[in-house]
């Protein structure tokens, strides 16, 4: 299988603005957070918003620990979501060093003198949320807990928060070029929304494709009938100690969100998109979610190829990315 490569457009912002973006990224990447242990990231988000000293921003939470942010007073809002857990083990802060070489962010475990995960999945999404919070007058954000263990937070979220959103964007996919419109046979947006944002997608060298499980899929399964999409956002080799983040690709993703809001958002209007009601057939844990598909694979085929660390299906090697791809999860597996 070959992955088509597209050009990444040149980032055209001032050096000062780019440096400010890098400072925000560094502050986010410096906070370690994993499923079940997210308090430090929650504190960071609350503290960041508090320091904005903006009385038009209202922050709330729910019993699951999800964080909801509303800025402005509007009839409808554009909405950006992210999750606040990663899959990396938390190491002592004194041993965790976040570095960038001007092009990429990466992290080092000083105790073992080796690379460690930087949590771009989904710290990059947190960056896009907070960056656009500062840019927009009217916007909603949701920060979900425990996505990495089966979209736990978004499956239990307060759907009343989304009753006045116009559309939902998420930055939770590796690479740069993808705009995910189909997740496990759940369509995320239709022709009208695509028409509204098509020029933006072309300007940012984005292509519509299939993708893996994340929170916007869960919101669709919860019954949210608006256009939604998940975007690649510049992280690579997620879920591994070799993970890194390409700075300009992340900035471009956040700027794309800004331009999509300009193109597709109008106060009082909703980008409606109706889906057939979702009928769940699996449990919430990722590993058991796709066991049914794994059980259908012939035994000799299971043994002939590496198995997906998420669902157990056979992986196909993609030499263009030097990684194995799972056609069941519709994503790369850097563990196996």
Describe the overall structure:
- This protein has 336 residues and is α+β, with helices and mostly antiparallel strands.
- Strands 1, 2, 3, 7, 8, 9, 10, 11 and 12 form a nine-stranded mixed β-sheet that branches. Strands 4, 5, 6, 13 and 14 form a five-stranded antiparallel β-sheet that branches. A three-stranded antiparallel β-sheet has the order 15-16-17, with no helix packed on it.
- It has helices at 15-29, 39-52, 120-135, 152-155, 191-203, 215-221, 247-264, 286-289, 291-295, 299-304; strands at residues 57-61, 67-71, 77-83, 96-100, 104-109, 114-116, 139-144, 165-173, 178-183, 186-187, 207-211, 227-232, 235-236, 244-246, 315-318, 323-326, 331-333.
- Helix 3 (120-135) crosses helix 7 (247-264).
- It has ten helices and 17 strands.
- Residues 1-5 and 281-298 have low confidence and may be disordered.
- The longest helix has 18 residues, at 247-264.
Instruction: Look at the helices and sheets and give the structural class.
Output: alpha+beta
Calculate the terminal CA-CA distance, rounded to whole Å: 17 Å
Main sheet specs:
9 strands, mixed
Overall pLDDT: 89
Number of helices: 10
Note the topology:
Blueprint: H1 15-29, H2 39-52, E1 57-61, E2 67-71, E3 77-83, E4 96-100, E5 104-109, E6 114-116, H3 120-135, E7 139-144, H4 152-155, E8 165-173, E9 178-183, E10 186-187, H5 191-203, E11 207-211, H6 215-221, E12 227-232, E13 235-236, E14 244-246, H7 247-264, H8 286-289, H9 291-295, H10 299-304, E15 315-318, E16 323-326, E17 331-333
Parallel strand pairs: 3-7, 3-8, 8-12, 9-11
Antiparallel strand pairs: 1-2, 2-7, 4-5, 5-6, 5-14, 9-10, 9-12, 13-14, 15-16, 16-17
Helix pairs in contact: 1-3, 3-7, 5-7
